[in-house]
Amino acid sequence: MDDLFKKLIAHSKEYGFIFPSSEIYDGLSAVYDYGQNGVELKNNIKKYWWDSMVLLHENIVGIDSAIFMHPDIWEASGHVGAFKDPLIDNKNSKKRYRADDLIEDYIEKLEAKIEKEISKAAKKFGDQFEEQKFRETNPRILANQKKIDKINERFVKAINNNDLVEIRQIIIDCEIADPVSGSREWTDVRQFNLMFDTKLGSVNEEANSIYLRPETAQGIFVNFLNVQKSGRMRIPFGIAQIGKVFRNEIVARQFIFRMREFEQMEMQFFIKPGEELKWFDYWKDKRMKWYKALVSDTSKLRFHDHDKLAHYANAATDIEFKYPIGFKEVEGIHSRTDFDLSQHQKFSGKKLQFYDPDTKESYTPYVVETSIGLDRMFLLILSNAYSEEKAPNAEGKLEDRVVLKIPAILAPVKLAVLPLVRKDGLPEKAHQIMDELKYEFNCQYEEKDSIGRRYRRQDAIGTPYCITVDHQTSMDDTVTIRYRDSMKQDRIPVSKVREIISEKVSYRNILKEIS
Ligand code: GAP
């Protein structure tokens, strides 16, 4: 695991962002709890997403559907039959892997070799370098590209045909070894359904088996007509939802990147058939803007268009972020045709159509879906924010500081109010300032330890502003405001604090930027 990733995990625990679930009982694999700072950051991400959907679009409304749903829903959606991952065990290490991940990682390694070759040549030839020509002529690149294409072709065919023997054969032919033990002794590949089931009803023998939902989307599909009719919605319109989902992941060793209980923020946009590619492009653009408003180094974000499309989809892309463990999916955008609504019509026997008053025709709408994992977004913000720097202490000597440069609107605590000393009426004055600001901002009062140590603690949780109350405050009603990222300090009147902070932490500005 990457060093930075390990540091993030340790930092998250030490500063109250994320704790392993049930830790005093030795934990529960791939389940995590959000601590006092984590829950604030998570709520702020939710608000940014929710407002960007529901406030910025007159034709998007939200719902909150139940986690338990009728079991036939998961038959209709295809989850009972097909929500499976191919798993493989290593006979020596006894470690379990997703067979498709092993193959994809192998392909990624070949791609990385090509990129390395290109960057070496780009350095060597400088301005003279022609990348396309180099790709088309360099024998090592051509050989690796040929390998990638061949594996990809076999892999896509095997996945589409559900050919587990061939998936294993690809692993053998590519000489893929267990990343932990290096062993190449593999078992057969088996399919494993990711849905958790449980019983509904009090008497176990008579109770019905139901599933914990593995996505929030189906709660939206089955409420399509309820929302459309009660809200008098006209196509195109969207329904947004944030909620918990559950997947019994085979491999779950990547902190909150792959969890067994996590949260999704999904939006289904119902449209007229034939208009799906226009809306797919529209949502790709909108969603990428949403991320770019938070991540200044935009080279860490990219689209990854799918080669392998599900049988019901006619376009699909992932938004990927460069996590410390590499470029990985944070969101999927899918054009799902009328698959879901048609399936629910078939299984429920209820008509799920839209009557267009202009053309006087009824039709089953198509859907473009945007689906983001809230916990992966949380990890994105944390990875992007974590920074180790040298900073001068009170005596001017350089020391290490760890700072979370979380965008101010998302920061768990917006400002800390710090009396310089615990006497001379400074704590009282600091409390007075807090009492004025606490209705709008999450403020923290701290009086223990030197001011330098208190600044470091606030840096470590990403507090963008520290207000220090000192002896001058009692004379002229001014305080110092310290900015987290630049560590610059300004003297300002107490009466200005609210205005300065409001401007920087307002959702209004960021929503305007992306709308
Ligand atoms: N309704 C479509 C859907 O559920 P998905 O690609 O399976 O699509 C959507 O999931 C998003 O949910 C992913 O882009 C990812 O951010 C998040 N996600 C999926 N599995 C996850 C897991 N085990 N742990 C954390 N987040 C996960």
Structural notes for this entry:
The chain folds into three domains: 1-63 and 216-385, BirA Bifunctional Protein, domain 2; 84-191, Herpes Virus-1; 413-514, Rossmann fold, CATH 3.40.50. The protein has 18 helices and 23 strands. The model has no long low-confidence stretch (mean pLDDT 94). It has 515 residues and is of the alpha+beta class. Bound molecules: glycyl-adenosine-5'-phosphate (GAP).
Summarize this entry quickly.
With 515 residues, the chain is an alpha+beta fold. It contains 18 helices and 23 strands. Strand 12 (315-323) and strand 13 (326-335) form a beta hairpin.
Percent helix range: 25-40%
Find the structural class using helix and strand composition.
alpha+beta
Mean pLDDT: 94
Structure summary, number of beta strands: 23
Q: How much beta, percentage-wise?
A: 15-25%
What is the highest CATH level, the class of the largest domain? Alpha Beta
Give the number of domains: 3
Instruction: Determine the number of helices (DSSP H or I, runs of at least 4 residues).
Output: 18
The parts where pLDDT drops under 50 for at least 5 residues are none
In this structure, how is the largest beta sheet organized? 7 strands, mixed
N→C terminal distance: 38 Å
CATH superfamily assignment of the largest domain?
Bira Bifunctional Protein, Domain 2
Radius of gyration: 27 Å
